[in-house]
What we know:
Blueprint (H helix, E strand, L loop, with lengths): L2 H21 L3 H8 L3 H9 L6 H11 L3 H5 L3 H11 L7 H25 L1
Amino acid sequence: MTEMSKLKDEVIGKRIRQARLECGFSQEELGEGVNLSRSQIGNIETGRTVLSAKDAKDICDYLGLDINEILNTDENELEALILFRQGEGISNERLIDWSENIINELIAQEFLFKQEGE
């Protein structure tokens, strides 16, 4: 998996998590609604599992989302973020904020994943 696709999966997962939380569903509830396990939803939300087109459609339908809201990512921004994370390219404030948000979100995901497993 390339750095670009891994980061894209993380961004898509973050969007799904945000939508799920806005709807008030747990990972388990979403999973039951789309015939996936809680751990599969957790892996999708953290970008560890690549989201299939069928699962993306099912999740979006269940959450009442347009699939484009979840899947659209700006390739230029992702490329700039990868370069920034590698210590290359231009370091602008927006990329710093975005990178920090992704890191904080992943830390929160890990915490929630551990809590749900207890």
